[in-house]
Amino acid sequence: MAKTLYIFAGSVWAAAAELAVAELGYTDADIETKSVNLVQGENFAPAFLKLNPLGTLPTLEADGKVYTSTTAVVGALVKDAPTKVAAATAITETIHEDKYDPNFAMFAARNEAERAAKGNGIAGAFLAGRQGALEKYAADPEGAPFKAFYEAKLAQNGGGLAISNGTAPEEAKAGFFAMSTAHFAAIKAALYEILPGVLPASGFIGGATPGEDDFHVGAWLTRILLTCGAKSADDALAALAAAHGAPAPASVAAYWGAWTARPSWTKVYGSGLH
Ligand SMILES: N[C@@H](CCC(=O)N[C@@H](CS)C(=O)NCC(=O)O)C(=O)O
Ligand SMILES: *[C@@H]1O[C@H](CO)[C@@H](O)[C@H](O)[C@H]1NC(C)=O
Q1: Which region is the signal sequence (predicted)?
Q2: Residue 55 within any structural domain of the chain
Q3: Ligand 1 center to 37 CA (angstroms)
Q4: Nearest CA to 160 among 104, 216, 110?
Q5: Counting ligands in written order, which one lies closest to the CA of residue 162?
Q6: How many angstroms separate the alpha carbon of residue 57 from the centre of ligand 1?
Q7: Residue 51 has pLDDT above 70, yes or no
Q8: Ligand 2 — pocket residues by CB below 6 A?
Q9: Is residue 42 assigned to a domain?
Q10: Residue pLDDT, tens place only, 97-136
């Protein structure tokens, strides 16, 4: 039965669902994809919040049900798939923990120089675009049922925007730099300690071909390498080594090679890492 998958080209977790679709033997007739522009805050539109009250991607509508988190979306795609793959293990839950959040990694800044660079880049544009959308929808009569959601998001995103655009008070910035430093250390531990504990010497966590865990871990790793400064599959391991001051563990390097050789990875990331 037809499914509708909501994605966005810049979204790390939507990419996990897109990798799953590409690997699982679905045809174009099985799944309709719709883009929700996160930079313009389309995920905050009342019509989208009616579908997914969290306002996040990926979101999947299938068989009269709505799946609103990445693990639920990928789980539903795996369950119904023409191609059967290995089921998720504990690493899927681990990689989704807040302390390893690949979205925060995009905004994190450990000092004033990093803050200024990111504030003037995609991260700053993203926060500003969202704030404008939240203001618009909060003032729209159709947004009335989501008033509490908009107020919380306006405060949270506005705080992030003030740090990003440099107008936040010094102590708020200092707190953000400390949080970012801790996040960078947690990501390093994931890359150099946790992943080597679960990645095979070759192939995927799910075996010779990607399994359910791999859709999550592959998308997470791609985003993290981007935040290390990678521009493509080819320069990513050097970027990782430079960012963290140590060569990539052998299993992480092999895993990156395995994923980037897949047509599915090229389909999802060919036009740019995200
Ligand atoms: N833990 C959630 C996170 C999903 C998430 O944060 N998705 C991002 C895109 S990668 C999003 O939709 N962000 C919009 C927002 O938070 O406003 C999940 O796995 O579903
Ligand atoms: C910076 O962010 C704050 C908080 O959202 C906002 O009120 C202000 O207009 C922004 N200033 C600039 C120069 O973008």
Answers
A1: 1-22
A2: yes
A3: 13
A4: 104
A5: 2
A6: 5
A7: yes
A8: 131, 158, 161-162, 165, 167
A9: yes
A10: 999 999 999 999 999 999 999 888 888 999 999 999 999 9
- At 65, which CATH number? 3.40.30.10
Asked whether residue 145 carries a pLDDT value surpassing 70, the answer given is yes
Centroid of ligand 2 to alpha carbon of 103 (angstroms): 21
pLDDT band at 48, cuts 50/70/90?
Answer: very high
For a pocket test of ligand 2, which of 115, 165, 173 has the largest count of ligand atoms closer than 8 A to its C-beta?
165
d(C-alpha 202, C-alpha 223), whole Å = 21
Candidates 3, 134, 143, 98; CA nearest to 59 is 3
CA of 165, closest atom in ligand 2:
1
Asked if 110 and 104 count as a contact pair (C-beta separation under 8 A), the reply is no
> Which residues form the domain of 39?
3-88
Report the C-alpha gap between 250 and 248 in whole angstroms: 6
**Helices of type H across 26-146:** 46-51, 70-79, 90-95, 102-107, 112-119, 122-139
> Model pTM?
0.97
Report the atom number in ligand 1 closest to the C-alpha of 15.
10
Q: Which residues contact 41 (CB under 8 A, 6 or more apart)?
A: 129, 130, 131, 132, 133, 134, 137
The verdict on residue 221 lying in a domain is: no
CA-nearest residue for atom 6, ligand 1, is: 56
Does the beta carbon of 252 lie inside 6 Å of ligand 1? Answer: no
